[in-house]
Amino acid sequence: MLQHPPAEPGMREDEVETPALILNLDAFEANLATMARRLKGRNVALRPHAKTHKSPVIAHLQKAHGAVGQCVQKVGEAEALAWGGVSNILVTNEVVGARKLARLAALAHVATIGVCADHADQIDALDGAAAEAGARLTVYVEIDVGSGRCGVTSPQEAADLVKRIADSRSLTFGGLQAYHGGAQHLRRFEERKAAIVSAVGIVRATLDALEQGGLPCPAVTGAGTGTFDLESTSGVYTEIQAGSYCFMDADYGRNFDENGAPVSLFRQSLFVLGTVMSVTRAGSAVIDVGHKGVGVDSGLPLVWEKPDIAYAGASDEHGNLKFTPSHNGALKLGEKIRLVPGHCDPTVDRYDWYVGVRNGRVESLWPITARGAMT
Amino acid sequence: MLQHPPAEPGMREDEVETPALILNLDAFEANLATMARRLKGRNVALRPHAKTHKSPVIAHLQKAHGAVGQCVQKVGEAEALAWGGVSNILVTNEVVGARKLARLAALAHVATIGVCADHADQIDALDGAAAEAGARLTVYVEIDVGSGRCGVTSPQEAADLVKRIADSRSLTFGGLQAYHGGAQHLRRFEERKAAIVSAVGIVRATLDALEQGGLPCPAVTGAGTGTFDLESTSGVYTEIQAGSYCFMDADYGRNFDENGAPVSLFRQSLFVLGTVMSVTRAGSAVIDVGHKGVGVDSGLPLVWEKPDIAYAGASDEHGNLKFTPSHNGALKLGEKIRLVPGHCDPTVDRYDWYVGVRNGRVESLWPITARGAMT
């Protein structure tokens, strides 16, 4: 069941039912503009990752700021976007299983659909599904550039897979998928730079192998919010897949920039709004947001603009707030608190609605159409 | 958007699209029967906690095994159950906010609705909302019996709140809410026993204070899957709120019983089914279940009946499987793997459907109606 919206347009933020996912629209729009400015002149395309936002509405706003298409991780996310009018979608992931492949191929009738592969069997299955549907799929070969997760581990394996795609009936080679997930949250700029220098080296070696095989490579796609400045100026990446930049989160806030200061290019636009629901003891209070309402995989949320209050522990439906001695007066029952999620992506995936807020008022409600789209 | 079901009745389990929430129906039904047998003759009622299962279907099956009603944590969960025909619901939580209170009071026209309070202002607000709706609400006073979360912290405070309920226009005093969440996962039986002995002492002191105030207490409700044996034989608890017993999870599997053996009263009935989607390196594989698909707040999932394979790390949509040296042969692309969730409640909350399986075939699909019901 889709949950009913926790707010209505025009309502004050403090009237919103909680927990609710709040989007500061000014900050969100500023982030879209900042990314467009930052990439200008770098000769790279922006293909934001919808695993973060899961919303055709946001995809269209990103397109208005220059995005060439969207990334997703799951076929269900691709469906939600394609059915919402997004015309160019790359599944940055391997897709395994006959039913999923049939769904993916069906989508290729209404949108340009790319997908990744790191194994010959996947390519054969994709070719079969596309042929069966009478559709064409664009296939990217995923190479492991340092994360140790998916992706082939040698240039020759990549070249073999590209050759197999070229020899297929219904597939087009799209390029290399070269995302270094493990680099995004390395804290020091120098660590992130070293990781991406290494990734770029692997990409170059792979491009060399393709060239030697007479296999043109149309694109190199990858990068996230933590490192996109590096890939986008590397000379080998042609497309940037950052997702979190539109929202940001507490964990990205723990990264440092090249001057050793906390990263500050993008603004925090995403919040979970909670309500103080129990105040039975001094120095603490209970908020109605637990780990069902905010992702804790990358640490606990922060309390926004109240540095003297800590979110000290999460159970399923409750959060324990603790006050430092400097706090003047206890939190009041019913008081609203904005939390900065530790990790934006899994937090968004718990909600059905964005509550867009401007100047303290609810301006818009956007459904999170791909919420829970895991298959 | 409700996600489409990942399976159809009659399908083999290995044909189910993944990630999927699998319910072993034999084990699930055995757990319901085991709880009924265990509580027989103890003069306590069973009111299972629907924060675990979020499904009217399961609530009705529990009623058929003797449950007197259901617990929930959120008004949205109460709505999902009441609209699904559950006639007796206790919100084991404080509810704060005018819109929520109006929704709760509205439900009291179609079901018997209980709710907790630990502050006079909550009682006044509940009374106002019930009067406004022309309904009666049953209010339980929550006492802190050791968790340090919600609940009043002295018998006198409890007595004052009970008096306030008795003096209200539209509220009925239901009893004491006395749940010790912190005791459920204490590993050793002796630790759990000591915690519940302490909780029972606090309950008794509170009952004494009510008696001195001439305030009859109709019920003492609480207990979870980790400790219900203790509360149900305590002589003071009249109602048991266990939830996880119908599913179990890896974290409950780390509790030891009074003989020092891992607890084994209930069977593992809940699984997340995943598919091996990438196999590019020796000794490891990638499965399509990350922390968006399985709760990691209480530890990583276990691989079911494959002790030589470990789920070693979760990212949003991927799980890294590692093989111990004893493993014969690599996992195959497309192979299905059952995971035992670290924590059942938040895992269920990520899915729209239970896939009920018996003898390797899909028997039934049940919607998780209260998935995401957070307000």
Automatic annotation (TrEMBL), chains A, B:
<dbReference type="GO" id="GO:0008721">
    <property type="term" value="F:D-serine ammonia-lyase activity"/>
</dbReference>
<dbReference type="InterPro" id="IPR051466">
    <property type="entry name" value="D-amino_acid_metab_enzyme"/>
</dbReference>
<dbReference type="Pfam" id="PF14031">
    <property type="entry name" value="D-ser_dehydrat"/>
</dbReference>
<dbReference type="InterPro" id="IPR029066">
    <property type="entry name" value="PLP-binding_barrel"/>
</dbReference>
<feature type="domain" description="D-serine dehydratase-like">
    <location>
        <begin position="269"/>
        <end position="358"/>
    </location>
</feature>
<protein>
    <submittedName>
        <fullName>Alanine racemase</fullName>
    </submittedName>
</protein>
<dbReference type="Pfam" id="PF01168">
    <property type="entry name" value="Ala_racemase_N"/>
</dbReference>
<dbReference type="InterPro" id="IPR001608">
    <property type="entry name" value="Ala_racemase_N"/>
</dbReference>
<comment type="similarity">
    <text>Belongs to the DSD1 family.</text>
</comment>
<dbReference type="InterPro" id="IPR042208">
    <property type="entry name" value="D-ser_dehydrat-like_sf"/>
</dbReference>
<dbReference type="GO" id="GO:0036088">
    <property type="term" value="P:D-serine catabolic process"/>
</dbReference>
<keyword id="KW-0456">Lyase</keyword>
<dbReference type="InterPro" id="IPR026956">
    <property type="entry name" value="D-ser_dehydrat-like_dom"/>
</dbReference>
